[in-house]
Amino acid sequence: MENPRIRQLLDQMAVIENELREAVHVQESRVFFQIKGKRVEFEQSIRLAHRRLKTGFFRWLVTNRPQNLITGPVIYGLIVPLLLVDLCISFYQAVCFPIYRIEKVRRADYIVFDRQHLEYLNFIEKFHCTYCAYGTGMIAYIGEIVARTEQYFCPIKHARRMLGTHARYANFLAYGAAEDYEAKLEEFRQSLAEKR
Asked: In angstroms, rounded to a whole number, what is the distance separating the alpha carbons of residues 168 and 174?
């Protein structure tokens, strides 16, 4: 049996998180930049300040921590498994989600490349940021695809407390709540349906 107080608190948390996200975005964009389509534009004074703060490549190379340079090949070697997982998870979603009638996850909502507009970063730093944006965005993209899959097949919380749960997990059925499981499972599946 679902606790109405827990449901109410979860709903309040979701509303507050959305309001906070929007307030932070409005504050940032009002103070520093504006988004025009896919382009991020800074005020002229901010752009000039950014250019003055930019570290040239050779100075960056000399002042960079040696361990960062040494471990670079290991870090960038992960691009191969990341691309492979990206290909596999995208294939899975393209084939299976239409069959299950699950709305597809838009990768552009998770993988965002916008740090190249920061003029205080040199080309190596921009490359690092692009790689990190891809890696973290890919993990979030995969996480949402798996979360929707879990909601479709097994929307049940674990008995043990778990760190790092996805946003959908809070709404899952309590562990051991067997009453009307099949009907509730169908409700979870219907909520994932593609919007047409």
From this structure: 13
CB 56 within 8 A of CB 121: no
Per-residue pLDDT of the chain (196 residues; tens, 9 = 90+): 567 887 788 788 888 888 887 877 776 655 567 677 777 777 666 666 666 666 776 666 667 777 777 888 999 999 999 999 999 999 999 999 999 999 999 999 999 998 887 878 888 888 889 999 999 999 999 999 999 999 999 999 999 988 888 888 888 888 888 888 889 888 889 989 865 4
Concatenated DSSP letters of 101-122? TBPPPPGGGT----GGG-TTS-
Query: In terms of Cα–Cα distance, which of 160, 155, 147, 158 is closest to 180?
Result: 155
What pTM was computed for the model? Answer: 0.74
Q: Which structure tokens are listed for 75?
A: 């870090």
